[in-house]
Amino acid sequence: MTKVAAAAPAEHPAVAETLAQAFQSDPALSWILADPHHRAKALRALFRVLVPADARCGVVLRAAGDEAAALWRAPGHAHGGTMEFLRTLFPILSAFGTALPRGLKVQASIAANRRRGHFWYLHYVGVRPTDQGKGHGGRIIRAQTAIADAQALPCWLETATHENVPLYERLGFFAVAEWDVKDGGPHFWGMTREPLRL
């Protein structure tokens, strides 16, 4: 079984690459970044920014062989905060270019539908395409939901991938919201997970 642990800063580039590969065919990011070649470059740039940003306000988990990675934001940090926004603004503008308006629409819809209160936020989780279907995604999510259970805290995530909804349900999440991004954007499921009593 592949070991899951918090990623050290030196491991952040490998985590970014894993997530960029995992999200290449994501419905939301495919709508934002329609050109596959531009999408591949933009996702690498995006995750090179998001991985250290989420490490500062939560935890970055990686499988030892880089099969999977997850970015979790700690309770109270789901929105990232003003300083994090300013720190990441220019690199994200550069990565998205003319696709930025679509990216902002998606982000606004997510923020409007996100759970309120104190919770662990699964910002991103992904498995390299060559390693999907082998249990890596569930393993890396359970590593953090066990901590949330110990802290008696709920978890939250959004997904635009219908096929992932049953996976998250098997991990204790359940859908509490569904919405469409305006102007023909992707459909999302908002899913929550209540802490298990230990």
UniProtKB/TrEMBL annotation:
Alphabetical list of InterPro entries matching this protein: Acyl_CoA_acyltransferase, GNAT_dom, Trichothecene_AcTrans
Pfam families in the record: Acetyltransf_1
Location of the N-acetyltransferase domain: 59-194
GO molecular function: acyltransferase activity, transferring groups other than amino-acyl groups
Keyword tags: Transferase
Name of the protein: Acetyltransferase (GNAT) family protein
Organism the protein comes from: Sphingopyxis flava
Native organism taxonomy: Bacteria, Pseudomonadati, Pseudomonadota, Alphaproteobacteria, Sphingomonadales
